[in-house]
Fold this sequence. Notes:
globular; 7 helices
Amino acid sequence: MDPREKQLNALRESLQHSPENVPLRRMVAESLLELERLDEAEKEAKAGLQYDGDDAGCKTVLAQVCLQKGNFSMGLVLAEDILAKSDADDTVWLLHARLLQRAGQADEAQASLRRAIALNPALREYELGEQSADKSPAAPDPGMRAGSARGNA
């Protein structure tokens, strides 16, 4: 069995004992997103938001699912809500930039990318465009996790 699947199973078992644990539910959603199980990730993130409607990590997972499913307008609503309510990190700004780019708002996308770069200069080499649409939803490298905005709500 894939080690990621084992980890997911362990997280889900823990979640059965504590279904209202939003950080744990977020971890399940992030794991599902990494496994490209978008519908399940969406379901878990939405369930997390039922317990804490302002959880930036769950909203980030939902926005990433929207990006991958092509629902850019809903993804933008979620990303902009995170940006308005929290001291968002570079991954949220990058996600926002990617959503804007895919929605055809190139100038606004570049502005969000500049903000992400200001927070993380390592992103200077990152370019928005169609090739980035196939990468990890929020980050150009595997070191950046989907829910790094957690706790910023």
